[in-house]
Amino acid sequence: MRTIAIANQKGGCGKTTSAVNIAAAYARHGRRTMIMDLDPQGHSTLGLGHNPETLDKTIYHALTNAQIPLPRVIIGTSMEGLDLAPSNILLSGAELELANVTGREFVLSEQFRLVSDQYDVCIMDCPPSLGLLTLNALVASTDVIVPVQVNYFAMEGLRQLLETADIIKMNFQPCYVKILGLLLTFVEDRTLLSRQIQQQMREYFGDLVFETVIHRTVRLAEAPSAGESILTFAPNSKGAAEYMALVEEIITREEEPKEKPSVEETAGETGEETGEETLAEVESQDQLTPLTEEIRNAKK
Known about the structure:
Elements: E1 2-6, H1 15-28, E2 33-37, H2 43-47, H3 59-64, E3 75-76, E4 82-85, H4 94-97, H5 107-112, E5 121-125, H6 132-140, E6 143-149, H7 158-171, E7 179-185, H8 192-205, H9 218-222, H10 230-233, H11 238-252, H12 263-266, H13 272-284, H14 290-298
Parallel strand pairs: 1-5, 1-6, 2-4, 2-5, 6-7
Antiparallel strand pairs: 3-4
Helix pairs in contact: 1-11, 7-14
């Protein structure tokens, strides 16, 4: 099972919209798909037609209660081939509850073992922070897609997030996460600023930036209120076409490294000793970023 985290510590960059519609596009391509809502706001859950407040079990229960495995919290959606691991405000307390759990950064990886043969891909909608929930998602992921709103402020923390994946890969074993690509969102071709930032992003990051971009459209903004992805809400819209094109482009980038083990082989190992040694090496090389403090706290 491929696990793709949609992550950016900045809010308002289109993470949830992209997570919902990438998952829907994968399902439309015939892949058995699950979307996991790891944001306590529950916007992916809402965006797929479920009321977070009425749910009996959510991803919170799977992460904090060993008696409730991930398969018991997964629910269906109105789209064939697309399931949802929902979220609600209870998830905001998960980091506190996991604070004293040994190997807490691998809790999500362990849960994936239970469903790895049921799905081809899992899309994770991460919260706008670099806390324990995002850490779990990155450790458990095979790939990361970073939505980037086309404005200068959105670019501020981008380098830190790219470094984050490398630091996590160094400090938590097994972990094979890599940045699959940067997705430009809220694009407006008619403005000079938008065109300039696109050009700068492509010049600086090169092929890491997806060729497909997501334009700001009314239909994309309306779809969540209907509890649908853009592919079912407005299948002939520009937004639907762009997300289908994006997934086609993602699929071309999906060749797995030959040395990379499967989820079943890698989940369950803690790699604590390796992580401690590597963190010391990072500290000695003065390569610390704000996430290093999160990693240090997670390993205590």
